[in-house]
Specification:
alpha+beta, Immunoglobulin-like, Neutral Protease, domain 2, eight-stranded mixed sheet, six-stranded mixed sheet, 8 helices
Length: 473
């Protein structure tokens, strides 16, 4: 993510009601117990859930401009990781549920705490068994505004809406296991009046118009964290093609931004150029397509939504993203999207490498050298807030602070000097390849870099990741 405010903070989502253990039916050999109402992340204890692993989300959503609301059916396919008596999904009001079924049979449910949808199927679900949850619902999805985290969820625009989910927001639009550690594939079937465009992550598989409505189907075949899912509905100019390396590329610009045709083409071409540059630097592009969407939503940030970053440039009519911003958000496709953090405390692995991606692109394309950019940033006085906090554990209120972005990038550069150029360039490919489509922690990264380079990196990690203050060079 690239945000305008440097100091952003996390929001407390509330604590779910305690769940009692339900015993298995009389005579059964197994004991069935509830799945946990959280994923165990200390920064966001209500986010995510336990007891199952989601494989796929199938989201059917119809947008009605007259009401600004949606009618939707989401089908969740998951696999139990314990004998489940009941389980939770994350789902926010004010969306109203009209039907909820588990494996095609009506199930009871309650909504508790900040976002818990507690589902009790007619029978317990055995460990390792695959099951489906189908939820039909409607209403106007929630826009989540926080004084420090900014805006997420369902963000209305003049002619539609954009779904933006970092660090949370997905639960405002569809029932979800909302934590980066439970990645899944997606299918979106999106309907809107035929004058509007519907966009999402992944690849466009079908489009049809009937009765004044246009429906598109999008497939995300690579595992995706819910915070990276996106939907955009409105009037967009769309450009599609391929990069020189052959990667499908789809870009779109909100007509409300009044982007000239030649600038829309430039945005498309620069997206392709940056993707190909990073494809050579970081190894095979991890997803089936690249691209980006310029919106006018008033959120004030860009977001690395998987395969198709969203750039809110509403304060600059006619503008397209700079190559620096493209390098940041597209760099995330390897660092943050393909390899995602195990816990939100590990977010420097996303933002530090994305910021360093800006530096490397600058150095390779006639801009300032990486060393010059490091020196400029390091020159920040030791009394500045930049040096407050720990990079590898910034705290819930500081996951989008400068220490995560700028100190994270400086940490990467110092690592480069410690292990040498050849080992560093190998690391840039080997790390995202080793954890492709998975999750990793700061500890995982330090151990991986030590093994690859043969260097003891304890002193580097202590000074640049695990300590407060300005490290000495």
């Amino acid at each position: 993510m690239s945000r305008t405010p440097r100091a952003l903070a996390a929001v407390t989502l509330g604590v779910a009601a305690s769940l009692a253990v339900t015993a298995a039916p009389a005579g059964a050999a197994e004991r069935f117990t509830p799945g946990a109402p959280g994923a165990g992340d200390p920064y966001f204890p209500d986010m995510g859930n336990g007891g199952y692993d989601v494989a796929h989300y199938d989201i059917g959503l119809k947008y009605d401009p007259a009401t600004k609301g949606i009618q939707a059916v989401t089908r969740v396919t998951a696999r139990a990781t314990q004998n489940l008596s009941r389980f939770d999904l994350d789902f926010l009001g004010p969306l109203k549920i009209s039907s909820l079924k588990v494996d095609g049979r009506a199930a009871s449910y309650t909504r508790t705490g900040a976002q818990e949808l507690v589902i009790t199927p007619r029978k317990g679900i055995r460990d390792r068994r695959t099951f489906t949850v189908t939820v039909a619902y409607s209403g106007v999805p929630q826009r989540i505004d926080d004084d420090t985290l900014g805006t997420s969820g369902w963000v209305a625009t003049n002619d539609g809406a954009v779904m933006l989910n970092q660090p949370f927001g997905a639960a405002a639009v569809y029932p979800v296991n909302d934590h980066p550690t439970d990645k899944a594939t997606y299918t979106y079937t999106l309907s809107a009046p035929s004058g509007l465009t519907t966009l999402a992550n992944g690849d466009l598989r079908a489009k049809r118009t009937a009765g004044g409505w246009t429906t598109t189907r999008w497939d995300v075949r690579n595992p995706m964290a819910s915070e990276l899912a996106m939907i955009a509905i409105g009037r967009y100019d769309v450009v599609s093609g391929r990069t020189k390396a052959g990667i499908p590329n789809l870009t779109a610009t909100d007509q409300a931004m009044a982007v000239k045709a030649e600038d829309a083409k430039k945005f498309h071409e620069q997206t392709a150029e940056v993707t190909d540059f990073q494809n050579a630097l970081y190894g095979r592009y991890p997803f089936t397509s690249t691209g980006g969407i310029v919106v006018k939503a008033g959120v004030g940030y860009a977001l690395e939504t998987q395969g198709r970053p969203v750039y809110d440039l509403g304060r600059r009519p006619g503008a397209i993203p700079s190559t620096s911003l493209l390098a940041h958000e597209l760099g995330h496709q390897w660092f943050g999207d393909s390899v995602s953090p195990k816990k939100w405390a590990d977010i420097w692995l996303n933002e530090g490498f994305a910021t360093y991606s800006e530096w490397m692109y600058s150095a390779a394309h006639g801009g300032k050298s990486v060393q010059a950019l490091f020196d400029e940033t390091y020159a920040t006085p030791a009394s500045d807030d930049l040096w407050t906090g720990k990079v590898a554990d910034p705290g819930r209120d500081h996951i989008f602070d400068g220490l995560v972005y700028d100190r994270g990038a400086m940490a990467v550069h110092v690592l480069r000097t410690k292990i040498g150029e050849k080992a560093f360039l190998r690391l840039l490919k080997a790390w995202p390849a080793a954890y492709r489509y998975g999750n990793a922690s700061t500890g995982d990264f330090v151990r991986f870099a030590e093994k690859l380079s043969g260097k003891d990196l304890d002193a580097w990690a202590k000074a640049w990741l695990y300590s407060e203050g300005k490290p000495a060079l």
